[in-house]
Design brief:
Number of strands: 0
CATH architecture: Orthogonal Bundle
Radius of gyration: 12 Å
Structural class: mainly alpha
CATH topology: Non-ribosomal Peptide Synthetase Peptidyl Carrier Protein, Chain A
Strand content: under 5%
Number of helices: 4
Helix content: 55-70%
Largest sheet: none
CATH class: Mainly Alpha
Number of domains: 1
Order of helices and strands: HHHH
Length: 97
């Protein structure tokens, strides 16, 4: 499951980056910074990324998840800092319930 999540996140970043043309997002890794200090995305870009990932995760795993909710925002460490933290959060949500 983890590899599929990472693949979805990478593909979605690369699709978004077709418009952004950010060199740092061209070939993302798990360490790629997304949002926050030294992040590569503006808030509107993060919203687009999150929405697109939610759709793809729903299609792939046949389970609805919401990434940007109170639970995500209240965490001590944001799940949107890097590809790794986002993938970890998605995996956690998919394993719940």
């Amino acid at each position: 499951m983890r590899n599929e999540i990472i693949k979805i996140v990478f593909e979605t970043i690369q699709e978004l980056n077709e418009d952004l043309e950010n060199e740092n997002l061209k070939n993302p890794t798990e360490e790629t910074k997304l949002y926050g200090i030294n992040g590569n995305l503006k808030s509107i870009d993060l919203v687009t990324l999150v929405s697109d990932i939610e759709t793809k995760i729903s299609e792939k795993f046949n389970k609805e998840i919401i990434l940007a909710d109170e639970k995500a925002m209240s965490q001590e460490r944001s799940p949107f800092l890097s590809v790794k933290s986002l993938a970890d959060y998605i995996e956690k949500l998919l394993n719940e319930g």
